[in-house]
Write a structure and sequence with these properties.
Keywords: Membrane, Transmembrane, Transmembrane helix. About 35% of the residues lie in helices and about 15% in strands. By secondary structure, it is an alpha/beta fold. The strands form two sheets. Strands 3-2-1-8 form a four-stranded parallel beta sheet.
Length: about 290
């Protein structure tokens, strides 16, 4: 963190829908003949195999049934790897419920039940290091004050969401209200229902031109000057321009980039290798702003 600079926080994450187009098990193993053949288990092991050798890589997982599927997901070796990554801070669970529930149309009893199932499983399996610190609703449709109140009472430090009405987002961007303290129950619970809340700038996907997953079409960072396609200046230029544009819509000089999307990190090394290069070269050309 450097005062006087734009501080960009790169957040590697994978978004693994629970039962969207397939069953939970089919998503976990990549089964069925649909053209969409993601595998949550590949996403985890793609990251874990790299994390065991590189202490600097980390990732955020949501959707407990996808991350902790039955069967081999709880075998000794898999559990050992997950515990290692959690204790080292390289793997972090966010939200922690069975899923990201809808908000506006969901009864509070159902919300509490599904969060309880997921959080109890994390606690009994991983202990304190498996406790999520942030609520994460990047894909549900609709919002409710009660949802924020429940998250605050559950002890989350913050709440981030991706979807909101386009007019609401335009207003938040214009008046730099993308982050706020949501006072979800000012007349009844008071401060106990207050929660730091942020609307994500780019839905939940990476900045344009900077997606480095194997399924992305953006160019990697090619930093060998002997290469015909050497492109450090171009990659850094995109990073700098994107950060300077984004920070204009926030009240602090700290901004988040969501570096991931649906079922990404099945080949985690492509992501982390390019993010490392992007960080190194951008910092070496750091642009001070006023």
């Amino acid at each position: 963190v450097k005062p006087g600079y734009v501080n960009v926080h790169l957040v590697p994450h994978t978004h693994d829908d629970v039962g969207w187009l397939k069953t939970v098990d089919q998503y976990y193993y990549g089964g069925t003949s649909l053209s969409l053949i993601p595998s949550v288990s590949h996403s985890f092991f793609g990251f874990a195999s790299l994390a065991l050798f590189l202490c600097c890589v980390s990732i955020y997982f949501c959707h407990i049934p996808c991350t902790l599927n039955s069967g081999c997901a709880l075998c000794d070796e898999t559990l050992r790897i997950k515990l290692f990554c959690l204790s080292s801070g390289q793997l972090e669970f966010i939200n922690g419920g069975w899923c990201m529930n809808d908000e506006a149309s969901t009864h509070y009893n159902a919300i509490i039940d599904q969060m309880t199932v997921g959080l109890q499983f994390l606690n009994s399996t991983f202990g304190e290091c498996g406790r999520p610190l942030a609520a994460w609703h990047i894909d549900p449709f609709g919002h409710s004050r009660e949802q924020a109140s429940l998250f605050a009472q559950m002890g989350f430090d913050g709440f981030f969401f991706g979807r909101l009405d386009y007019q609401d987002k335009a207003n938040r961007l214009k008046y730099r209200n993308m982050e706020e303290i949501w006072r979800a129950s000012p007349d009844d619970l008071g401060a106990a229902a207050d929660l730091f809340t942020g609307a994500l700038y780019n839905h939940y996907v990476p900045p344009g031109g900077l997606c480095f997953d194997i399924g992305c079409k953006d160019q990697p960072v090619e930093d060998d000057m002997a290469l015909h396609d050497y492109n450090v200046a171009n990659r850094v230029g995109i990073a700098v321009n994107t950060s300077l544009d984004q920070v204009q819509h926030f009240q602090t000089d700290h901004i988040m980039w969501t570096m991931g999307s649906d079922f990404q990190y099945q080949a985690a090394h492509t992501w982390f290798k390019n993010m490392d290069k992007l960080i190194t070269h951008t910092n070496s050309m750091a642009v001070r702003y006023s």
